[in-house]
């Protein structure tokens, strides 16, 4: 069993101070995109999902604006882009600690686990092959608890 991911994350509710702190302008689009990502909780949104959510408040927004803004937020280290092998990259706010992804190949559910869940893996790899596991986030495929 993986250990459930139930704690809260300190993701800032508003983008304005983050953007200003990086010398970036605070625009309505940027604010709405940040809100869509933060409001999604532990969900994983594709760029198309973000466009759909932002359009609820700003129907005129163009997909290319959203894509460019997502790129900018990734570049500024505020948002992560992950390829879960599900066909399109997903976006989420960067949290203070690393999250590895567990992807269910049957139902598509995506769960987070923290580093401690993989602590054994890192030491096994080191013992078996001398390989030093890096600091990247990992995506692991398998079956979730409901599908196993
Ligand atoms: Zn966490
Ligand atoms: Zn499943
Ligand atoms: Zn995630």
Q: Can you tell me about this structure?
A:
With 148 residues, the chain is α+β, with helices and mostly antiparallel strands. The protein has helices at 16-21, 28-39, 47-57, 63-75, 119-129; strands at 45-46, 79-82, 90-93, 100-104, 110-113, 139-142. The chain is built from five helices and six strands, in the order H-H-E-H-H-E-E-E-E-H-E. Strands 1-3-2 form a three-stranded antiparallel beta sheet. A three-stranded mixed beta sheet has the order 5-4-6, with no helix packed on it. Helix 2 (28-39) crosses helix 3 (47-57) and helix 3 packs across helix 4 (63-75). The mean pLDDT is 90. One zinc ion is lined by residues 5, 7, 9, 95, 97, 99, 112, 114.
Quick take:
This protein is an alpha+beta fold. It has helices at residues 16-21, 28-39, 47-57, 63-75, 119-129; strands spanning 45-46, 79-82, 90-93, 100-104, 110-113, 139-142.
């Amino acid at each position: 069993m993986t250990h459930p991911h139930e704690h809260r994350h300190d993701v800032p509710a508003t983008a304005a101070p983050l953007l200003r702190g990086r010398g970036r302008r605070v625009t309505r689009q940027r604010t709405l995109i940040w809100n869509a990502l933060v409001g999604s909780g532990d969900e994983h949104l594709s760029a198309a999902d973000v466009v759909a959510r932002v359009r609820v408040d700003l129907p005129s927004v163009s997909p290319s604006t959203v894509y460019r803004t997502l790129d900018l937020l990734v570049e500024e280290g505020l948002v992560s882009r992950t390829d879960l092998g599900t066909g399109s990259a997903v976006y989420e706010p960067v949290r203070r600690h690393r999250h590895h992804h567990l992807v269910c190949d049957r139902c598509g559910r995506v769960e987070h686990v923290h580093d401690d869940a993989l602590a054994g893996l890192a030491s096994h790899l080191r013992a078996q092959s001398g390989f030093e596991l890096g600091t990247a986030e990992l995506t692991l495929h398998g079956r979730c608890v409901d599908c196993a």
